[in-house]
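About this split. The held-out portion is used to measure sequence recovery: a designer receives only the structure tokens and must propose an amino acid at every position. Recovery is the fraction of positions where the proposal matches the reference. Here is one held-out target exactly as it appears in the evaluation file.
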């Protein structure tokens, strides 16, 4: 299997971050059905990343962007989990 490109990896993490922010907004507004649907979409991206996320060495600016996106995702997930826990 060919390695995914750095651009592919960044695009997937950007999509994952966007879905995470949408999930957070749904949780903030108590739209739990929407949150569940978004989680399903996000699971597909996570699965793709877990199967294909070894692009080899990447330029520092790309790895820095991916690290920034992962931090954003984790922050949104933590708040979403806290809000869901109160539900």
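Reference sequence for scoring:
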């Amino acid at each position: 299997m060919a390695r995914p490109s750095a651009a592919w990896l960044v695009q997937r993490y950007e999509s994952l971050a966007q879905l995470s922010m949408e999930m957070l907004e749904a949780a903030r507004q108590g739209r739990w059905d929407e949150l569940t649907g978004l989680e399903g979409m996000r699971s597909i991206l996570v699965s793709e990343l877990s199967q294909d996320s070894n692009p080899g060495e990447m330029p520092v600016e790309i790895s820095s962007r991916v690290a920034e996106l992962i931090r954003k995702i984790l922050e949104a997930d933590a708040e979403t989990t806290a809000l869901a826990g109160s539900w």
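Annotator remark: The mean pLDDT is 89.
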